[in-house]
Design brief:
312 residues, Thioredoxin reductase, alpha/beta, redox-active center, flavoprotein, 5-stranded parallel sheet, 7-stranded mixed sheet
């Protein structure tokens, strides 16, 4: 078990690295447990990021995360490439246990472990991820201007993405495995009134087809009632079947909502446990953008700093 630290940041990505930058500049020398397999969060699997302020020509997702990491280290953050498997956050000293056996202690903890998109699990999905297959319409819709687009899902997120993507695509086909939608009535009515949106109900995507030169080109769709399959053109395939927040390791250490997202106090980043703060996609089910996660990471750092100052 290591010496008692001021603050530990569990997770990386825009929220974690931003929190580390702010806490490092304040002199707290935070420990960032960044993850063993995917440090940097979802952006490390993203190609060009065009909507992060300060980069008018865009920047590759891995390059943006590398720059944030180096900036955090410049101000004194220490990084550990491991995953947290359990925590004890109940006392004044927070205890964090990692997969490789290291145990760390701190006065405060900031959780920025993010969430993972739910995937279709069909052939071609991984192959064409970032080359046609996307999980964020706001991030990637622009790349499919004038091209046929498919959205997979039946909830509010899928309908929001379908409506948004009509600004770019030559057509938008929403594919849903049931005959009824989980989305709110107003979202369904809005989509039904949009001439650019078609629906394929009782249907599932079986395969994503494409080529090494052109990326994704079509999807094979199976009707779950009849068993019939068809192939429809699609250069953009947007998967909107939900996210899973990375909170399993927390157990009951902080209050979670029914879907596993961390509950915070109003506009703050304070969790139900004193001295524990949370930021980014592990809290935010609505926006899920790099810039909003970074902003929340800043707020978490300031909340943690206020907590530590009051206890010093």
């Amino acid at each position: 078990m290591t010496d008692l630290r001021d603050v530990i940041i569990i997770g990386s990505g825009p929220a974690g690295y931003t929190a580390a930058i702010y806490l490092g500049r304040a002199g707290y020398r935070p420990l960032v447990i960044a993850g063993a397999l995917t440090p940097g969060g979802q952006l490390v699997n993203t190609t060009e990021v065009e909507n992060f302020p300060g980069f008018p020509d865009g920047i590759l997702g891995p390059d943006l995360m590398d720059a944030m990491q180096r900036q955090a280290e410049k101000f004194g953050a220490e990084l550990v490439w491991d995953d947290v498997v359990s925590v004890d956050l109940s006392g004044d000293e927070k205890i964090v246990t990692c997969d490789q056996g290291d145990v760390f202690r701190a006065r405060a903890v900031v959780i920025t472990t993010g969430s993972q998109v739910r995937k279709l699990g069909v052939p071609g999905e991984e192959e064409f991820s970032g080359r046609g297959v996307s999980y964020c319409a706001t991030c990637d819709g622009f790349f499919f201007r004038g091209k046929p687009i498919v959205v997979v899902g039946g909830g509010d997120s899928a309908f929001e993405e379908a409506n948004f993507l009509t600004r770019f695509g030559s057509s938008v086909t929403l594919i849903h495995r049931r005959s009824e939608f989980r989305a709110s009535k107003i979202m369904v009515e809005r989509a039904q009134a949009n001439d650019k949106i078609q629906f394929m109900l009782d249907s599932v995507v079986e395969r994503v087809n494409g080529s090494s030169d052109n990326g994704a080109e079509s999807v094979v769709v199976r009707n779950v009632r009849t068993g019939e399959t068809s192939e429809i053109p699609a250069n953009g395939i947007f998967v909107a079947i939900g996210h899973t927040p990375a909170t399993a390791f927390l157990g009951s250490a902080v209050e979670l909502d029914e879907d596993g997202y961390i509950i915070v106090d109003g506009a703050s980043t304070r969790t139900s446990t004193p001295g524990v703060f949370a930021a980014g996609d592990v809290v935010d089910r609505q926006y899920r953008q790099a810039i909003s996660a970074a902003g929340m990471g800043c707020r978490a750092a300031l909340d943690a700093q206020e907590y530590l100052t009051k206890r010093s």
